[in-house]
Design a protein that fits this description.
single chain; 379 residues; alpha/beta; 7-stranded mixed β-sheet; 43% helix; globular
């Protein structure tokens, strides 16, 4: 089969799923063509031959993180923005402009690719292309109709875009089936959307077979764009540097590796995959922002978490993990201090709960099932 695979670059969770999915599809002998923008494109280009760059769509974000009100305004109007990484002012195009250009970037290559099936991870533009060109499509998503932290102003737009999801042959949700779906509040009610018959919860795309380690330290992996990472560090560091337990913080900035010690905290610009694995496996508590991929990483190792969400999807994930008594949501320094004290006194209970969730999650082989579903789609 000739497959067109496209993913959103709003966070790197989408591309972190698309890469292992693409590797598995390659092993099955399929011909693959990848499309994305920003850092997601750069990561795909390192892994696959046929990779094409498209216009990225992004939130309005500065050194303080994602600005909700500005992002809503930026949907229709260009806004000035200080690019922290480039150290200069620039104009950020509106989301409408980005969406139109992204669609035509995708369409430009459709004659050459001539895909049998289109697979989109979080990329509604690609689904629109599939509908217009009558290409069978599969949608991979852990966010469809979010109910946490999303302005009601966006609801009409969400309902409009759902028509492209309803036109898909299959919808793959890389999460546990209910009632243990971590992204439940971001997915919404699929019965109300009318897509239940074509939707399958396949489990996480990472190996979720349970692994147990020690309880030696607090681990805080920071991820996301530079503004989000800066916002998280400002919340974490003043609290963790005073903690009696050793803390390891990964700043998520690849490049020259450097380390420092502040109070009881070890700060590392980044950790290798093996170092990250060891830090996660031997943590007694993980403090993170609530990204979907990291949620399943903490579940695999059976680690209680404190979630500091920086955007709506993470807020929903944190709320569901908190409901399952596997996590505590904290939104500022005071709440983080209280959460650490509560977690310390009830660590055994939280650990037992997340280990039970880990055993359930370990039953699924999401990647294998996703490949089977894609291969079952016919034109």
């Amino acid at each position: 089969m000739r497959l067109l695979l496209s993913c959103s670059e709003l966070g790197l969770g989408h591309v972190s799923r698309l890469i292992p999915l693409g590797k598995r599809l390659e092993q099955h002998g399929h011909e693959l063509f990848f499309f994305s923008g920003g850092k997601a494109y750069e990561l795909l280009q390192k892994e696959f031959k046929n990779t094409y760059k498209v216009t990225p769509i992004s939130w309005y974000e500065n050194a303080h993180g994602i600005l909700t009100s500005a992002s809503l305004l930026n949907m229709f109007f260009p806004l000035p923005l200080f690019n922290v990484e480039q150290n200069r002012f620039e104009i950020k195009n509106s989301n409408t402009w980005e969406t139109i250009h992204r669609y035509y970037d995708l369409r430009e290559n459709i004659y050459n690719v001539k895909p049998d099936v289109l697979v989109a991870d979080g990329d509604i533009n690609a689904l629109r292309l599939a509908l217009r060109w009558k290409i069978p499509s599969v949608y991979v998503a852990n966010t469809i109709r979010p109910s946490f932290g999303v302005s009601t102003f966006l609801s009409p737009g969400e309902r409009f875009l759902e028509r492209y999801i309803k036109a898909c042959q299959k919808v793959i949700i890389p999460d546990n089936p209910p009632p243990y779906t971590v992204s439940e509040y971001s997915i919404g009610n699929i019965d109300n959307m009318g897509i239940t018959s074509r939707t399958e919860y396949v489990g996480g795309f990472v190996d979720t077979k349970p692994v147990r380690g020690g309880q030696e330290h607090i681990f805080a992996p920071i991820s996301g764009p530079i503004g989000t990472r800066s916002q998280l560090l400002k919340t974490l560091l003043p609290v963790l540097e005073k903690a009696q337990t050793k803390c390891i913080i990964s700043l998520g900035t690849p490049g020259k590796k450097a380390s420092a010690k502040i109070g009881n905290c070890e700060l590392h610009t980044w950790l290798t995959p093996e170092e990250r694995k060891q830090a996660m496996m031997n943590a007694k508590i993980v403090v993170f922002s609530g990204g979907h991929a990291t949620c399943f990483e903490t579940i695999k190792y059976g680690k209680p978490t404190i979630c500091i969400p920086t955007q709506p999807e993470q807020e929903g994930n944190g709320a569901k993990l908190e409901k399952m008594c596997c996590s505590i949501v904290a939104k500022n320094k005071k709440q983080l201090e209280k959460a650490l004290k509560k977690m310390d006194t009830e660590l055994d209970t939280y650990t037992q709960n997340v280990e039970a969730l880990s055993e359930f999650s370990g039953r699924f082989r999401g990647l294998d099932r996703a490949v089977e579903i894609i291969e079952s789609v016919k034109g």
